[in-house]
Design goal:
Length: 185
């Protein structure tokens, strides 16, 4: 069985070269030279690591069956040879978001913000995987780690997708977001 636990290790080694790391909202994160995605939990942020962000994959929490079926039909896998660009976007939402009930979050996520519909418009060019951090511990600096892979010719479309998502009501609940861009050598 494939691992559901992942560590994103920013440091001096890894297959992904970090081209930028900018804070969209809230505190920035140090920009390492390289990034490795490790299918396991890596302890601490000891040398040669600059930082370690940890997450676990889980079930889709805010989608309905028809939306999940559409995602499965269009989504391509990670690790495609042509996908030489990636983005790691760690996100922390506000306490107000977490005070909402599941159905209230679903209403904001999909009925108001159309999160899934926006994402579907950019599949299969952009592959994605969501990692939950809150499920590991309350000490993680982010709630979610969003990982995207795409070919260089789809970078502009990826940027449009992010702009659409960031303009939605859902993003008023984001209190920290860092956009880390990567390239595979």
């Amino acid at each position: 069985m494939a691992s559901r636990l992942f560590s994103f290790v920013g440091g001096d080694t890894g297959p992904w070269r970090v081209t930028s790391a900018r804070a969209v909202t809230g505190e920035p994160i140090a920009q390492p030279a390289r990034l490795a995605v490790v299918p396991d939990l890596v302890a601490g942020a000891a040398s040669p690591f600059g930082w370690v962000l940890k997450g676990i994959t889980s079930n889709e929490r805010y989608v309905e069956r028809s939306e999940k079926d559409q995602l499965l039909a269009k989504q391509q896998g990670l690790g495609r040879p042509e996908a030489t660009c990636a983005a790691l976007i760690p996100i922390r939402k506000s306490p107000a978001w977490w005070a909402l009930t599941q159905d209230e979050r679903r209403a904001i996520f999909e009925e108001q913000s159309h999160h899934t519909r926006i994402g579907l418009n950019y599949l299969p060019a952009v592959a994605r995987r969501l990692h939950h951090c809150r499920d590991l511990s309350g000490n993680e600096p982010f709630d979610f780690l969003t990982w995207f892979e795409f070919a260089l010719e789809h970078e502009e479309n990826f940027n449009h997708m992010l702009a659409e998502l960031r303009a939605t009501p859902e993003w008023t609940y984001v209190e920290r977001e860092v956009d880390i861009r990567l390239a595979r050598d």
